Amino acid sequence: EAEVAQSPRYKITEKSQAVAFWCDPISGHATLYWYRQILGQGPELLVQFQDESVVDDSQLPKDRFSAERLKGVDSTLKIQPAELGDSAMYLCASSLVGLVGTDTQYFGPGTRLTVL
Amino acid sequence: AQSVTQLGSHVSVSEGALVLLRCNYSSSVPPYLFWYVQYPNQGLQLLLKYTTGATLVKGINGFEAEFKKSETSFHLTKPSAHMSDAAEYFCAVSGGNNRLAFGKGNQVVVIP
Predict the structure, then answer these.
(1) What is the DSSP letter of A105?
(2) Is the predicted pLDDT of residue A109 greater than 90, yes or no?
């Protein structure tokens, strides 16, 4: 069964450092999502891509966060500089079409970030 | 805009007893509703979803949920809890743009 791949699984960094997370969606999925999940809370959407284009980044803190999906396949989420409050699980998801509300999103295992 | 309310962050249930997790939603358009399960240090897995049609939806692992428009609810149930059901459960709602709004989740503890 095809899965969403993410790396690294765990990342520990010091504040003010740069970190990057990678996501490889299920093959053929046009839509890719990055979520942030703070401990004890539900996931919150940071950015949504349709192929290589950003369709929603309204909740992305653009002063320090950036995301790209250059060839419309895999994606990288970067934080520079990291702050203590960025400690969370970062989840990537993908869906086949994404522009229809019924489309199922498939989640990767996540990257747990700890900022010291 | 869409939102979801899940009350009671921790839910304890005895093995073999009914599992009931409550979800109430708010949506300005006809909602699409989802339940996801998350095991420790893993991503989310879809349990079931409601789009249109039959209001009683059956999912994996013996779970089901009923969409009640008049009550704006989408409660999740399982007749008999198993130890493997211990996990965190999230209800989510989306409108037509596939943007999911999640609730805060319910941590289910199964007591032997």
Answers:
(1) P
(2) yes
Cis status of the peptide bond prior to B31, with omega within 30 of 0:
no
Specify whether the CB–CB gap between A85 and A65 falls below 8 A.
no
What pLDDT is stored for residue A99 in this prediction?
65
> How many Å lie between the alpha carbon of B104 and the closest alpha carbon of chain A?
5
Per CB-CB distance under 8 Å, the chain A contacts of B106 are none
CB of A59 within 8 Å of a chain B CB? The answer is no
Taking every pair of Cα atoms in chain A, the longest distance, rounded to a whole number of angstroms, is 40
Residues of B in contact with A98 (CB under 8 A): 98
SS3 B47: strand
Task: Give CA separation, A30 vs A53, B37, B80, B95, in Å.
Answer: 10, 24, 38, 19
Low-confidence ranges of chain B (pLDDT < 50): none
